[in-house]
Amino acid sequence: MKLKDKVALVTGGGRGIGRAIAEGFAREGAVVAINYHQNEDGARATKEAIQSRNGKAIIIQGDVSSEPAANAMVSQVVDVLGGIDILVNNAGVNFPAPFLQIRAAEFERVIGVNVAGVFYVAQAAARVMVARGIGGCILNVSSLVATRPFANGAHYNASKAAVSALTQSLAMELGPHRIRVNEICPASVETDMVRPALQNPKNLAHRLATIPLGRIGRPEDLAGAAVFLCSDDAAWVTGASLVTDGGLSVVPPFGRPA
Predict the structure, then answer these.
(1) How many domains, the chain?
(2) Is 36 in the active site?
């Protein structure tokens, strides 16, 4: 098992990519702390799925966009599980809208969760890792839109670009403490956030036509990439961005509205 006895905190682990990563980590032997903000039912479902396969998991409530809540969440994981070896910053929100129609409250919430949330939880977890003196791993879930923006998502695109910049900055600063920091950049993965767009037949057809592997991604498709980057198989990898998009990024045109 690649992550045997490691303690992993996965934010937003109650659904979609977060749930797939949490379950993938558990299959590789990790003890998983599943964070949720409001989706307690989803977090419990993830925990039960892990336990049904004899894995170990707990659930932790907390709003990552609040620094006190992020600190409390990390402290709770340490108190219950003894430390943190791996952090996956997955929690994210989006409110798709044309730029001229994005409301201030929507912008602030996207930046608060997607950027400040990554900063706050990473800082709290990294302090624990540094104090323990045995290194660790932080994996951020960014997006292909960090470098190739979609329409109707200026706030979301900007937030993911910030995550990519944070990933490289943290890799540089935390490397001397043996803490590796990487990111995965998915696109066209069927999650609750993306599913409404896929209900539009024209949009779905456009996406399928520009994905070389010929299908929409599943959250489970990202679990293996996450396991790799958080395991000793990637011991010499930090500051890296792994694109997980079925080949979408290599096919022009990219990002045009359907």
Answers:
(1) 1
(2) no
